[in-house]
Model the fold of this input.
Amino acid sequence: MRSISLALAVVLTVVAVGARAAEPSGDASRGAALFRTCAACHSLVPDRNMTGPSLAGIWGRKAGSLESFERYSSALRASGVVWDAKALDAWLKSPAGFIPDSHMPFAGIPNAQQRADLIAYLKGASAGKAPAVAGNRNGMGGMMGGTEPHFTDLKKVGANQQVRAIRICRDSYFVTTADGKTTAFWEPNLRFKTDSSAVGPRPGAPVLLGAGMIGDRAFVVFAAPDEISGFIKHRCDAPK
Ligand code: HEC
Done:
């Protein structure tokens, strides 16, 4: 019992100290750990855009101005904001509160110390000085299976991922790969994507990517959208 109340007292003290600091100064290494949440959508590699724009060089950049990012909201583009400590603090506290109608799918960080830590990290990272985020080799966080982008080169996958044929019979897809195996998927569990980037598949050579933990779901990634329907054959008998 005593150790529990002692632990509680420690927690309360830490909370009180945190709350007292009105303008906390940031700790970039703590910020690096916090950045993992952001890394699900943002990389720090120049022009490597994901769900969100690359944050390389964010310090002093005009909001919504990275040319290689196509999906900014008009609100962010038109905001006139330039990213410095003050603007980042307001944005990270409440993105939609700071720039209404912007659409960063992130609720905000209520804790001022955590925001300061992140901003310290972003400032260093922006100048190329920050430590890499541990366990974040590709500039992406560990999001749940399925939605995360890949940065492996899809031109270099093994035979078990090179798709040779896809057929659909009623509610089932049958995907045959270059190793001769055919895997069946329930229709809603197989999705089709395109990747036109430098690491996308070769034209006409789609790639099977597993998604999810159980192995019953997957993606087939094509080089371009017009390949998709031509590739999928309606037939119920397995080709000889
Ligand atoms: C679920 C995805 C997602 C997460 C998580 C996320 N962001 Fe974003 N972020 C976006 C998107 C999308 C935009 C573009 C918003 C718009 O155009 O309105 C954006 C925009 C930004 C911008 C403005 C960039 C520019 O070029 O003007 C900054 C700065 C930013 N995010 C920082 C962060 C930080 C720091 C975190 C972590 C605390 C974070 N974001 C978490 C998706 C995300």
